[in-house]
Amino acid sequence: MGQDNHAEGNKTLQIKHIRPYQVLRIEDGFFEEIKFFMPQARGAGSTSTIESILLIKLMRIVDASYIFEFGTYKGLTTRLLLENLPDKNITSERVFTLDLDDLEGVKFQGTDINLANEVLNYKRKYLTSKSKHLVKQIFEDCLTFDERQYLNKFQFIFVDGNHEIDYVKSDTEKSFKMLSNSPSCIVWHDYGNPEFPELTAYIQNLATTKQIYHIEDTMIAFYLIGKKIAARDSN
Ligand SMILES: C[S@@+](CC[C@H](N)C(=O)[O-])C[C@H]1O[C@@H](n2cnc3c(N)ncnc32)[C@H](O)[C@@H]1O
After folding, report:
1. Measuring from each residue's beta carbon to the nearest atom of ligand 1, which residues come in under 6 Å?
2. Atom 15, ligand 1: residue with shortest CA distance
């Protein structure tokens, strides 16, 4: 079975809703210690506490050396992933993160424009890290961003930029081209967010051709190759 062929007999594929423990129980071979930054209880624009833990876990599951993030915002997730990179004894850039430095001509949905405005000229959180030299900050509209320079490079890609459907579609298509060989994963944020129904519908449609999981109690959906999700407890 090829990595994109997940057809199960004649059954139509659809998104699988799984419990957080089904991700947390996957073996990863890492030490127990993590570096954590507690998200604000109701912080808009970034990930929740449980989502942050799951992002670290997914990054470990695929043993990510190279990471790409669509949508840096304040650099909170960038910092989280950076501080939990497996081997700090490295000097080249490992976490690539993309955001805007100009909003001219960009379409936005819901409150997205406020987030984009908020971080124009913002001193991003990862800049206080000792490992900040491992981050490559890219300032460009994701629609014009040329993914061909990064084909098959990243083990972990986080799609969390512009939630307008044309942008989500473009970021997703680019992500599949930039995704490295197994094990690797693409993670989308805001699945099920009532503010972005087209995003949810798009991922559900994608899930008819690729096996996509949604983690219940979160807005995380992901595509994972090379690792198996733990079984659901029967009760
Ligand atoms: C939801 S926030 C990202 C949150 C961040 N990933 C985190 O976890 O903390 C979305 C970000 O996408 C950026 N963005 C919006 N439209 C964009 C575009 N066309 N190209 C690149 N970035 C864009 C915004 O400026 C904003 O900072």
Report:
1. 45-47, 69, 71-74, 76-77, 98-100, 106, 112, 115-116, 119, 141-143, 160-162, 167
2. 162
Residues with Cβ within 8 Å of residue 85, at least 6 apart in sequence: 64, 65, 67, 94, 95, 131, 134
User: Quick one: pLDDT at residue 43?
Assistant: 74
Confidence band, pLDDT 50/70/90 cuts, at residue 41: confident
Domain count, the chain: 1
Task: Confirm whether 143 is domain-assigned.
Answer: yes
At residue 22, the pLDDT reads: 98
Whether this model's pTM surpasses 0.85: yes
- Is the confidence at residue 10, as pLDDT, over 80? no
The domain of 50 spans 16-27+46-225
CATH classification at residue 141: 3.40.50.150
User: Which residues have C-beta within 8 Å of that of residue 90, sequence separation ≥ 6?
Assistant: 134
* Within a domain: 183: yes
Pocket probe mutation, ligand 1, options 47, 102, 107, 115, max atoms within 8 Å of Cβ: 115
Residue 5 has pLDDT above 60, yes or no: no
Please report the pLDDT score of residue 88 as a whole number.
61
- The answer to the question of residue 35 being in a domain is no
Does the residue 5 lie in any domain?
no
User: CA-CA distances (angstroms) from residue 90 to 58, 134, 138?
Assistant: 21, 8, 20
Q: Specify the pLDDT at position 2.
A: 37
Q: How far apart are CA 199 and CA 191, in angstroms?
A: 7
Q: Which atom of ligand 1 is nearest to the CA of 164?
A: 16
